[in-house]
Structures are given as structure tokens and as C-alpha cells.
């Protein structure tokens, strides 16, 4: 999901100068590019920490065992659980990537710690996981804030549903720019929830995971501009697809006459492959088809 979301947003970095042509206020093209780039980065990072935290819990539950509290392995991340059993709650789960960057299977680099306060296994209805950070870096971006994942249970379609929030999110770039991010979304696990690569080791049991995401995201760029991102049509993402497969995303700036819309599965897309790089951009009612970056 991380690469899917980030790839879609990167295209917007090149489209914002076009948005500037119809902007009636004072934001510059360069500032708009910075805003969208930072928003995309923050979204990608917090999506990654959400996946990493949830994976730690699912591995604990599905494998029916905890990691050693004193893991002697030299491999990172080292996961510790306290209290060290399968029945006592709440638990503190620490995912320690060590003091130096560790490259994961997703090719992202991490160091520092994610600290998870969990009141039950992540598949138990009502379970809430709160993630905080201790000198945690993702691709050399420092991450701060509080991220909460709450399992709402199964919906009418028998799909697992999670409510995900980010509050007081702060990202510090390697070049020292600081930007802020908040999130209130719902993630519906629409396929692959009944197959688990953690148990089988089969890549197909990972790639069949699909999610439907709705909600809002907001923040403030390092230049001080406040923005809002809203899914006007749910985003459909697959963990093994590079692009968002469907959905419409709106981006607007507070107190500025500027808005853009991107449709990741336009009506003109007649290809049979849902995982493709065709999208449509609309700027104040003027639309054009685009090819997302490879």
C-alpha cells in the first residue's frame, strides 16, 4: 500500500503547477509542489508504520507465540512483548530496528523504535493499538506523533474494518524542514483477509490483500499552508500493485481558491488490467487523461 499511495501522489507534484495557473491567491507553484510532496511523504510514512505495527500483532496471534523478551538474534527488527504471554492485556510491544538503518522487504529504511500499546489482538473486535515513536526514522525522516488503529469488527459484507487515526503527526525531513499531518480514515479489508503469508510463507497469500480506504487527511506544509485531502470516492489499493487502482481524491487549501481532483480509474479506461497507470485529473471542471509515473 505504501508504494501504491506514494506513486499516485508523485504525479500530483507535476500537476500542481497547472493548478497554479487558475489559482486566484498567492501560493506559488514551488510552494504548492512542496505541499503536495510533503503530504504524500507523510501519508506514505504513516501508512507504513500502520502496516508494520499491525503485522507485529498478527504475527504474534497467528503463530501462537511471542518473541523472546531477550532476543539474542543479531537481525533487526527485534520485537519484544511485555507481559510475555498470550493472555495478559494490555501489552507493550516494542519493534526495535536498531540504531542504524535497516532495509525491509519493502525497500524502506528504518531505525529507532515503534512502541505499541495494545489492549488485545488486532483481530478482536474493539481492539485498539496505539503507536508512538522513540527516535524513529523512516528513510531518514524523523517521525513523531500518535497513531491509533482500532478494529471495528466485520461489516455486513463480512470484511474486517479498521479505523485509523494520526494525531499530532510531525515529520522532520533530512534537510530539516518540518511538516505536520493528521488523519481520520476507515480501512476495509475487502480480499485476502482469510489467507496469511505469515503462516504459509506464500507470496500469493500476501499479494491477494486488497483494501478500500475512505476518510480525510489534513496537515500543514513547511511553508505554513494548511491543506485537506478527502476521498470523494473510495480508494481501492492492492498491496502488490504500484498504483492506486480506483478512487477519487480531492486536495484543497484552507482559505485559498484552489482545488484539484484525481480519478484513478476514469470511465475512459477500458483496459482489462485494473492495475494500470491511467488516471484523470480535473482542475476547476477542466479534465484531461494522464499516465501516472512508472
State the main characteristics.
294 residues, alpha+beta, 14-stranded antiparallel sheet, 4 helices, 14 strands, 21% helix
Topology at a glance:
Elements: H1 2-20, H2 29-62, E1 78-82, E2 91-96, E3 102-103, E4 109-118, E5 128-138, E6 141-154, E7 160-172, E8 178-191, H3 197-200, H4 204-207, E9 210-220, E10 226-238, E11 246-253, E12 259-263, E13 278-283, E14 286-291
Antiparallel strand pairs: 1-2, 2-4, 3-4, 4-5, 5-6, 6-7, 7-8, 8-9, 9-10, 10-11, 11-12, 12-13, 13-14
Helix pairs in contact: 1-2
Structure characterization notes:
There is one protein chain. With 294 residues, the protein is of the alpha+beta class. The chain has helices at residues 2-20, 29-62, 197-200, 204-207; strands spanning 78-82, 91-96, 102-103, 109-118, 128-138, 141-154, 160-172, 178-191, 210-220, 226-238, 246-253, 259-263, 278-283, 286-291. Strands 1, 2, 3, 4, 5, 6, 7, 8, 9, 10, 11, 12, 13 and 14 form a 14-stranded antiparallel sheet that branches. The protein is globular. It starts with a helix and ends with a strand.
Amino acid at each position: 500500500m505504501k508504494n501504491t499511495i506514494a506513486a499516485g501522489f508523485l504525479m500530483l507534484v507535476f500537476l500542481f503547477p497547472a493548478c497554479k495557473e487558475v489559482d486566484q491567491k498567492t501560493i506559488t507553484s514551488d510552494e504548492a509542489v512542496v505541499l503536495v510532496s510533503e503530504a504524500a511523504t507523510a501519508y506514505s510514512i504513516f501508512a507504513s508504520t500502520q502496516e508494520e505495527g499491525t503485522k507485529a500483532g498478527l504475527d504474534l496471534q497467528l503463530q501462537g507465540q511471542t518473541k523472546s523478551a531477550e532476543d539474542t538474534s543479531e537481525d533487526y527488527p527485534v520485537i519484544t512483548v511485555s507481559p510475555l504471554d498470550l493472555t495478559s492485556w494490555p501489552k507493550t510491544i516494542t519493534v526495535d530496528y536498531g540504531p542504524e538503518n535497516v532495509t525491509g522487504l519493502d525497500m524502506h529504511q528504518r531505525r529507532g523504535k515503534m512502541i505499541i500499546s495494545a489492549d488485545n489482538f488486532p483481530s478482536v473486535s474493539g481492539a485498539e493499538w496505539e503507536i508512538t515513536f522513540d527516535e524513529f526514522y523512516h528513510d531518514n525522516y524523523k517521525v513523531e506523533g500518535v497513531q491509533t488503529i482500532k478494529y471495528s469488527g466485520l461489516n455486513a459484507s463480512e470484511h474486517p474494518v479498521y479505523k485509523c487515526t494520526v494525531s499530532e503527526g510531525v515529520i522532520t525531513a533530512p534537510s530539516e524542514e518540518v511538516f505536520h499531518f493528521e488523519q481520520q480514515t476507515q480501512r476495509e479489508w475487502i480480499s485476502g483477509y482469510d489467507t496469511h503469508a505469515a503462516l504459509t510463507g506464500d507470496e500469493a497469500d500476501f499479494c491477494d490483500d486488497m483494501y478500500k480506504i475512505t476518510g480525510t487527511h489534513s496537515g500543514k506544509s513547511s511553508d505554513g499552508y494548511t491543506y485537506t485531502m478527502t476521498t470523494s470516492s473510495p480508494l481501492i489499493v492492492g498491496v502488490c500493485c504500484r498504483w492506486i487502482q480506483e478512487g477519487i481524491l480531492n486536495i484543497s487549501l484552507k482559505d485559498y481558491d484552489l482545488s484539484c481532483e484525481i480519478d484513478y480509474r476514469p470511465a475512459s479506461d477500458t483496459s482489462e488490467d485494473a492495475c494500470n497507470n491511467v488516471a484523470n485529473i480535473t482542475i476547476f471542471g477542466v479534465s484531461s487523461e494522464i499516465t501516472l509515473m512508472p
